[in-house]
């Protein structure tokens, strides 16, 4: 179940969050899009203000943008006319429906105990050979940030193990640090993977 306090932050700060997103596709999004066939259908899991989904659409892909925060969905549709919809991780129940899944710093709001089943549902929704992108903050445990969002932290090894257990083969891993909406510098890991054919 989505954390109500986290959703309240995103509802209240949708416009502010949108200002943090870049106006051009970043290297991570470009690398992901290069793995998806032309015209491919992509699930944008936790689409936020819709910037990444808009870039994917502009590149000729077909994004299915979802977010649990109604404020984010409203912003995404007002700004980009994406047809984004309110949905949670638990609402992903498709089978082999997507050529790619973009889960960029969204699953870090899921409970640790739920991560395996959420990732399995996403792997099931992905076509064989489909591309998967995930970004997570690194560390251990779970805690709220200064603006009341709940985070689950993972190590790179833990995340790779979770993906492997779902039949997702990691093909690229990158790590770094960046300042988020809360103004705090945080370490992260990004992985790109392919679903076993």
Give the SSE layout:
Elements: H1 4-12, H2 14-20, H3 27-33, E1 41-45, H4 51-58, E2 62-67, H5 70-80, E3 85-86, E4 98-104, H6 115-125, E5 126-137, E6 142-144, E7 150-152, H7 156-165, E8 168-179, E9 185-195
Structure description:
32% of the residues lie in helices and 31% in strands. The chain is built from 7 helices and 9 strands. The chain has 197 residues and is of the alpha/beta class. Helix 6 links the parallel strand 4 (98-104) and strand 5.
Brief write-up:
The protein is an alpha/beta fold. The chain has helices at residues 4-12, 14-20, 27-33, 51-58, 70-80, 115-125, 156-165; strands at 41-45, 62-67, 85-86, 98-104, 126-137, 142-144, 150-152, 168-179, 185-195.
Essential attributes:
seven-stranded mixed β-sheet, 31% strand, two-stranded antiparallel sheet, alpha/beta, 197 residues, 9 strands, 32% helix
């Amino acid at each position: 179940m989505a954390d109500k306090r986290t959703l309240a932050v995103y509802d209240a700060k949708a416009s502010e969050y949108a200002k943090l997103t870049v106006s051009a596709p970043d290297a991570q999004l470009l690398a992901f899009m290069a793995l998806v066939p032309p015209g491919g259908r992509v699930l944008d899991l936790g689409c936020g203000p819709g910037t990444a989904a808009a870039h994917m659409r502009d590149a000729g892909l077909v994004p299915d943008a979802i977010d649990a925060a109604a404020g984010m969905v409203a912003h995404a549709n007002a700004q980009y006319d994406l047809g984004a919809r309110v949905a949670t991780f638990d609402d992903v129940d498709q089978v082999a429906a997507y050529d790619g899944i973009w889960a960029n710093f969204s699953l870090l709001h899921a409970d640790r105990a739920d991560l395996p089943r959420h990732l399995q549902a996403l792997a099931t929704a992905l076509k064989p050979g489909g591309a998967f992108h995930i970004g997570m903050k690194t560390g251990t445990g779970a805690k709220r940030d200064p603006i009341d969002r709940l985070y689950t932290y993972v190590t790179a090894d833990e995340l790779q193990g979770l993906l492997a257990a779902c039949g997702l083969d990691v093909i690229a891993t990158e790590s770094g640090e960046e300042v988020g909406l809360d103004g705090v510098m945080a370490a992260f890991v990004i992985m790109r993977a392919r679903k076993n054919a």
